[in-house]
Amino acid sequence: MSETTPSPTGQPAAPGAAAPSAPTAPTAREERQEVLLSVRGVRKIYPSAAGPVEAVRDLTFDVRRGELACIVGPSGAGKTTLLKIIAGLLEPTSGQVILEGEPVSGPPRTMAVVFQEYGRSLFPWLTVRGNVELPLKNARVPAAERARRIDEALEAVGLAHAHRRYPWQLSGGMQQRVAIARAVAYEPHILLMDEPFAAVDAQTRADLEDLVRDIWHRLGVTVLFVTHDIDESVYLGERVIILSSSPTVVQEDVHIDLPDERSQLETRSTKQFADLRHHIYEQIQLAKAGIVPAQIAAGVTQKEV
Amino acid sequence: MRALRSVFYVVALPAALVALWWLLTLGSDSFWVPRPGELVSTFREVWIGPRFMDDVVPSLTRLAVGLVLAIALGILGGLAIGSSRVLRRLSEPVLEFFRAIPPPVLVPILMVLVGVNDTMKVLVIVSGAVWPVLLNTIEGVRGIDEVLSDTAKSYGIHGTSRITMLTLPAASPNFMTGIRQALSIGLILMVISEMFASSSGLGFTIVQFQRSFAVTEMWSGIVLLGLIGVLLAGIYSFVERRVLRWYHGLKEVEQSE
Ligand SMILES: Nc1ncnc2c1ncn2[C@@H]1O[C@H](COP(=O)(O)OP(=O)(O)OP(=O)(O)O)[C@@H](O)[C@H]1O
Ligand SMILES: [Mg+2]
Predict the structure, then answer these.
(1) In Å, how far is B172's CA from the nearest CA of chain A?
(2) pLDDT for position A25
(3) Counting C-beta atoms within 10 Å of the first and last residue's C-beta, which end of chain A has fewer, N or C?
(4) What is the value of pTM for the model shown?
(5) Which is it for the CA torsion A254, A258, A264, A265, positive or negative?
(6) What is the mean pLDDT of chain A?
C-alpha cells in the first residue's frame, strides 16, 4: 500500500499525472517514456514432488506508463507464473519486479488483475454491483464516490442494466465484462490481464478486445495483456513481448506500428497486420524448437556466468 | 392455487398417518398405545400449563444456548483450523479422536467435573453439536477456490476483511450443512442431558412419566419433542433460504448446463 492516489481518468498520458517529485510537469511525450513497471531478471523454480520445475528462467523487460503491451508465448511458457509474480501473488525465486519505483512484495494498491477463469474470479454470493464494489469497500472509498465509480465502470463495459443480477446468471462474456468493470472501478495505474478471453466465443472475444482498447484509450491506464493468441496480441498491442517456451526467456520484443485507430475488420485485413502476425508466428515456432535469437542467448549466458 | 398445493403437500402425509393410527386404534383399548383423541387432550393437560414454564422453557433455553455456542465455536474454530495448514495437520488426528467419542458418555464425566447444573447440560449439547459445524467449516475454508482467493488478495483484501468478505461467505454452504446436523444432535443431547440426575426439563419429565407408567403422558412428551424438531427445521430452512439464496441459484445454473 505505497500509494493510494487514483489514476488519471482523462486522456491517455494526461499531463499532470506525473510523479510529484518532477520539477516541471513533463509533456505527454516525456511521460510516455517513464518506466512504470520493470521486470528484472525474474526466475521462478517451482518445487514439486517430481523435482523442481523451472517455469521461468530469466525475464527482463520494462513497460512504460500508458503503454498497452501484450505478452505472447506458447502454452506452458510460464505466462501465468510471470503475471502472478508481477501481481505480487507469487515470490520469484530470484530477480525483482519494480512498480513505480517500488519493489513489489505483495499485491500493489495501484494494480488490478483480470484472470482467465472469470467464472471463478467473481464472488458468486455478490451481485454484479456488489462484485465491483467489494474492492472499493475494502479500500474504504466513501459511499458516494463508490457509487459514482461503479456506475461509470459498469456503463463503460456495457452492463449498466445488469447491476442487480448475479454473475452466474450471466454469459461468459458478460462475466468477464464484470471482472473488467471491477478492475476499472479500482482505478489502477496498471491493469494485468491473463488470457482473459481464451474461454469466450469468437464474436464476444472481438467485442471484448475492442473494449480493452477503448478502456485503455479513455482511461490512459497501462495494460499488460497476456495471451497465447498471436492475432489477438498484434491487434491489441502497441508492442508484443514474445516469450520462449519453458524455461522461459524473452524471445523478441516487437513494436507494433499499426495505426492507433483499429477495427476488427480493417486492421486485421491489412498487409502490415499479416506481416507482423507472420513474424511473430515464426518466432514462436523458433521458440518452440528451442532456438533463441543470438543476441538474447548471449545476454542470458552473460547473466548466468 | 400454488399456495393451496404446497399446503396440501405439507399436510397430506401427517393427516394420512393420523387417520391410519385412528383406524388401527379404533377398537383396541391398549394400555401402551393411546388413541389420537386421548393423546391430544393429554397433551393439552400436561404441557399447556405450569409445566411449560417449569420444564419446557428451561430445556429449550439450554438447547438454544448450547446450539449458539456450538455454532459459534464450530465456525470460529473451523475458520482458524481451515485457514492454517499447520493447525490443520496438527488437529486432524485429535479431532478424529474427540469426534469418535459419543457425547452421552461425557455426561457422567461432566457431572463430576462441573456438577449437576445447567452448565453441564449445555456443555453436553455443545460437545455433540460442535463437530458437524467445525468439520464442515474446515472443509469449506479449505475448499475456497484458488482463483477467488488470488482475486481477493490482488485487491488487497486480507486479514479480517478477508474473513468477512471471502472466507465466511465462501464457507457458508458448508457450515450451514453442519448447522443442520447440529440441530438434530442438539435436540437428542438436550433430552439425554436431562435423563441423568436431573429434576426438571423435558427429558426428565418424559423419563419420569415412563417410570410411573403414565404412558399417554409419555407419548405426549415424545410428540412435543417431534414438534420442537419440526420447529427447528422450519427456522433453519427460513434462515438458509436467505443466507444461501445465491448458492441454490448457482447450483441450479450449473445443473442445467
Ligand atoms: N504450482 C506449480 N507447481 C509446479 N509447477 C507449476 C506450477 N504452476 C505452474 N507450473 C509449471 O510451470 C510451467 C509454466 O506454467 P504457467 O501456468 O505459468 O504457464 P502458462 O504460460 O500460463 O500456460 P498456459 O498457456 O497453459 O496458461 C508449466 O510447465 C507448469 O506445469
Ligand atoms: Mg496461463
Answers:
(1) 10
(2) 53
(3) C
(4) 0.85
(5) negative
(6) 85
C-alpha cell at B192: 439425554
pLDDT at A302 over 50: no
ipTM of the complex: 0.86
C-alpha cell at A66: 500508458
- Domains of chain B: residue spans and CATH: 35-256 (1.10.3720.10)
Q: A residues 256-285 near B, CB within 8 Å?
A: none
* Interchain proximity B155–A169, CB inside 8 Å: no
What's the CA gap between B176 and B136, in Å, rounded?
8
- Rounded CA-CA distance A78/A82 in Å is 6
- DSSP symbol at A244: P
Indicate the residue of A117, A135, A166 with minimum beta-carbon distance to B249.
A166
The DSSP annotation for A3-46 comes to --PPPP-SSTT-TT-S-TT-SSPPPHHHHHHSEEEEEEEEEEEE
Ligand 1 atom with least separation from CA of A75 = 25
Q: In angstroms, what separates the C-alpha of B157 from chain A's closest C-alpha?
A: 6
> Quick check: A90 contacting B, CB < 8 Å?
no
Contacts of B213 (CB under 8 A, 6+ apart): none
A111 touches chain B (CB under 8 A): yes
Q: How confident is the model at residue B112 (pLDDT cuts 50, 70, 90)?
A: confident
B107 Cβ neighbours under 8 A, 6+ residues apart: B120, B124, B192, B193, B196
